[in-house]
Amino acid sequence: MSEQFEPVIVGFLCNWCSYRAADLAGTARIKYAPNMRSIRVMCSGRVDPQFVLKALRQGADGVLIAGCHPGECHYVNGNIKAIRRFILLKKMLRQLGVEEQRIQLVWASASEGIILASKVDEMTEQIRALGPLNWNKTVLGSGNGHHDEIAEPMVEEVLNV
Amino acid sequence: MSEKPKLAMYWSASCGGCEISVLNIHEHILTVDEVFDIAFFPCIADFKVKDVEGYPDGYIDVCLFNGAIRNSEGEEMAHLLRKKSKFMVAYGSCAYEGCIPALSNLTSKEATFNTVYFDNPSIDNPNHILPQEVTQMPEGELTLPAFWHTVKALDQVIDVDYYLPGCPPEPPQIWAVLQVIVGALLEGKPLPPKGSMVGHTGVAVCEECPLEKSEKTITRFYRPYEIVPEPGICLLEQGIVCNGPATVGGCGALCPQVGMGCRGCYGPLPGVEDQGGKMLSAIASVIGAGEAGMEEHEIEQQIEDVVATLADPAGTFYRFSMAHSLLQRAKINGNGKGE
Amino acid sequence: MKYGFYPGCSLEKNAYAYNQSTMAVTKAFDIEFVEVEDWNCCGATEYIAIDLLPAYALISRNLAIAAKQQSEQLVAACSACFLNLKKADHYMGESHKLNEKINKALAAGGFNYEPGSVKVRHLLDIIYNDVGIEAIQEKIIKPLYQLKVAPYYGCLVPRPAKMGSFDSNEYPTSMDEIMRALGATVVDFPLKAACCGGHMTQISEDVALDMMRRILKNATDNRADLIVTLCPMCQFNLDAYQESVNKKFGTKYNLPILYFTQMIGLALGMSEQELGIGKELVSAKAALTNISEEPPPKPKRVRRSKEALPLPVLEEV
Amino acid sequence: MSKEKVGVYVCHCGTNIAGTVDVSDVATWAGENNDNVAVARDYKFMCSSLGQELIEEDIKEQGLTRVVVAACSPHMHEKTFRGACERAGLNSYLFEMANIREHDSWATTNKEAATQKAKALVNAAVDRVVQQSPLEPIPVDINPNTLIVGGGIAGITAALELADAGNHVILVEREPSIGGHMAQLDKTFPTLDCSACILTPKMFDAGNHDNITLLSYSEVESVDGYIGNFTVNIRKKAKSVDEELCTGCGICEEKCPIRVVDDVFEAGLGYRKVCYRPFPQAVPKFPVIDRENCTYFRTGKCRLCETSCPTNAIKFDQEDETLQLTVGNIILATGYDLFDARRIPQYGFGRYENIFSSLEFERMVNAAGPTSGKIVLRDGVTTPESVAIVHCVGSRDKNYNEYCSKVCCMYSLKFAHLVHERLPDAECYNFYIDMRTPGKGYEEFYHRLLEEGTHFIRGRVANVTDAALNDNEVNKLIVQAEDTLIGTQRRIPVDMVILSSGVESRHDAKEVTQLFKMGCDFDGFFIERHPKLDPIATMTEGIFIAGACQGPKDIPDSVAQGAAAAARVAGLIQRGTVMMEPVRAHIDQEKCSGCRICNNMCPYNAIVFHEDRNVSEVVTALCQGCGTCVAACPSGIISGAHFTNDQVFSEIEGILWDVSPEKVLA
User: Fold this and answer.
1) ipTM exceeds 0.85
2) Nearest CB neighbour to D593, from listed B206, B273, B279
3) Which residue out of D116, D628, D635, D642 would a mutagenesis test of the A interface target, given it has the greatest number of A Cβ atoms within 10 Å?
4) Which domains can be identified in chain D, with CATH numbers?
């Protein structure tokens, strides 16, 4: 493999639309970035924000949530719950310094393999540009952080107030 | 006398409320005094660290450790007391899960210093003096503890036997726990399994909360000063963020009863990994915006509008559990720093 | 409301009446126009027919200036100007190459233009969408009751579809609605969006005259007192060549061609002079006498024979 | 947790997987790197009987407690392998599948990355399966009654199929009579047999079948429950006629003094009385009183129908009633709406009286229609000398509907034929974009029309106007179009224009989908379970679709789908019970604090709150297992069987084996 950074994206795919979309993408031999690793849930409404946080903590560079289009949810409106949580979660993750592009939501119906595939490609590139997240190393890894090089510049900032 | 079990209580990064709470168990404090010898209790008795260092290992029977680990001193003391104690109890929210001090994990050590020593209306620091770990003085070298970048819970630096949640723990709970320990020490009664959380109901605060609850649909959020809550009705339904549903009970739901949404100080329910994530999920789920059948951007817009009325989600949902949350702290060079 | 304004050559000269009435009316609705400083020709149609690049460069110079003047929206009253400005912006946005070339050209004059930074809109769009029917109705002093008008849109404002239009490409109705609001009676006018012949007069007059005849005939057949338009070129063609049409085809059309802004002005109680009425060649005097104090009587139901089949109902716009 | 013995089987799927993923490497790796793995093999075709036996033997001989197969999508072979586990005595919910074909080997050419991803997916499956616990499918009894919504040809066919097979059917129709659009037609393409002649008998059977309860002039108000056990509320609108007493003699209709334009059955071309039956052969035979227009209901006077009724069947005081029924399955056959040509103003429908919609024309040529089959202009007398038929009105047009309505070409050809047949001297022009005649005998019919001398002009019509350019256009409607075959603009002056409007989903399709808790696409057509392999079922168990509500269809297609839906339902009824996935939510009654966050999460109202005990509970029978409440529960005490938090958390840890902290620090 090339030396470039290969992001690892955890994808939560709903059983009825997006998981099948991914199946279709494969069956249609659509080639897309191998960086997304799928986890099947019955509905995007099952995606507990804890799952996203867990994935980030465990070292994922990004998380993709995929479901049926609003109005087409197999469970009527589970995806509406999903988007409500997603929007609030994104707002909170912004506070925690997680870049927007690292968690994304996409609607892909069972017939939209191409949409899912291109979303994965797009997201992979965006995250590649951002670089690794690797929470445990870069964020917590520097132990108690008394030498937290990242934050150093801020000291000067502070000092030449 | 010297046969009495030894009790220690140490104060790391915390407000001191926990000490007060121990003294606040009313007449029972006398029993405590009867039962225990105080081995170390900076708040109420004059002991020095070297006294503790002098004790043989395991000399202290029960150490109630309160406060989060904020700096090198806290960590040293934690290790020292662990060595000298049979039972290490993470006493109160700070020691258990970081509590208010851990909110500074949302920003950097430097930003914290900036607020504390410079950028603050009540500060006058013309020479921009920052505390240094080492300062040379004519009299010699002065040292200060190193200030950690990340606030940690007690069990993130040492091994903890029991957890007693609450900010501070409520007297009845404290007494209940002390009784168990006393029972064990004096009458050899069985102790709860190591690592268990004691002094709580195991069910969310709502169970203890008398307010009337019904199906929830939130169309906007209010900060406490923005609204006078309808008495007798679930605050969450009125748009006031109340962490009760995601917080383990034991406090008697004191806050909601006086119109203040539960802050969440008793922490998540047993088995829940991330209190903030859970509360966020619950609250977002009942946002009354976005319906199947609407245009996709329309749905997003509607929800965005409601979410916009919820200030500082991280601070709200992780007010007490930041250090124990899945992400534990903010990423400093990320885009959203210090929002 | 504040907009950039591009008058274009016609409004300076033959369509001065349009200019006058536009200013009078927009003022009444406190619309503020910031004229594009030192604007130049829009390239009309000939130039574009000859060499696209310079044509677009020429046009986009105006856009560049407008952008410089911080006009996010640029209003043109002349359909040709409107279309050309819009086209230039659209194609620059579409083609990276064109954009480069044009900006290179602009740079020579010390300009540059970022496609999309100025939104080009037609005056009718502004009156219909930004001012709105209600606001117009509120200001009406002298309704145009019983005046039968044929609203004529010409071909440039509604089309082409791909650039997006504020009204139907084939059968626009915005001006109809405004006229109804003014109290006038709008006659059915199937050719409302047909071509007036435009510059065909310069190429083959016969063809052009026949195109005009269609329109005049259609309006006359539908008993219009006058045609209302929004384009100097349409106005000029139908007005100035009406006589030639009559000569060529032995017809007797006598249809005044006025601007929709003039009609609005009248309804707002402005004088004919300040609206430039009277400048038209086919005088509107006679036609305008049809305006009455009284709203038109309810059209009585035409008795249909008992064999007649029911008609599909058109919900009133 | 005690160590499990997991068997991992990595499938080559010929070269489908092995071509991209180093399967043996994955297998060995799994065996060495995950403590819970007892057996790890790779095999050519796991789904083959030999592959399955491999699993069965290992379970028996090695005492495997869990099984993971890394192969294709679970939607492909999960059932297969679960079967294998069951046969070997291992609960099938202790099996997990890793999708390394569709989601991996087929999606990339990068072998290294594919293999890495495969390891992640396998590892995740292993970590997950360890957390899984044995479950038993939930048997559900099927109520043998079936609800069919919509009494068009699709609904009627389905109803008769089921009824004849001895099952009870409730057939609900919004209008006073069943028959649907087919009843409005005269001839049917391409065979030209008379629509009424073939439909009426079926309508009669449906109306008089012992096994069919026909509820006309009724609408479904609410639907609750799940496959096998739906509870539906149906509102019977007041007909103001006592069906017990009414003989359907029709005197009331004769006597009724008020007539109004009939927008439904006569498509606006004719009139009907206010006390009316849509058409003589209506089923049921009972008339209804249209209260909006009835003089008695407006002024309290008239009562002519009442006084003239020989059996005193007119009941002005009759009220709407709501019936509650329980059924096991539901077939939706709600049909379509015709595109309203007024939406294309340049075609002049409504402005020029001699422009007709296709349904208007259908009624006109219908012997029982307003003109008794005479083709005349709007004045009702003049016969047109020339007729233009405009195809694709509102279809294949991005401004309206992008899709092809499928039936317009054929019925337009039929129209042309009827014009020739009834007005031999009239000229007939068909303006089409493409001639679409895919069907038995359809292309032949087109050729027949070519023979009959129809003028076919290939070009989308720009506009229809009465603005004459020359004398032979005077007093005509001029149809303007570009003839793309000869590449010129053409203006055809005609007396009559027929707009072949396309087929649209019902205006209220969206509400219907929400009522029945199923999906419809952006055009409003109901979504089938699979566009090719299952166009009859929907994503909601127990709800099937038939006819044009799923997409534009002609009569034979609708009939076929109606019968197919019936067959599917009959199959379920015969089975008596269905096994449902035990993927269900459960609330720990001890730990529920009664915060009621979950109460309005469930789209199936499966969560009930017990005031007395102050706890919420999931009604397992109603739960469909989506897990929305599980995710919502702030106390984390709602568990979703087979998708528990622990299971997903383990899966996350497993899937991130190569980057997760433990391994990184280790």
Assistant:
1) no
2) B206
3) D628
4) 6-137 (3.40.50.960), 146-336+538-575 (3.50.50.60), 337-504 (3.50.50.60), 585-640 (3.30.70.20)
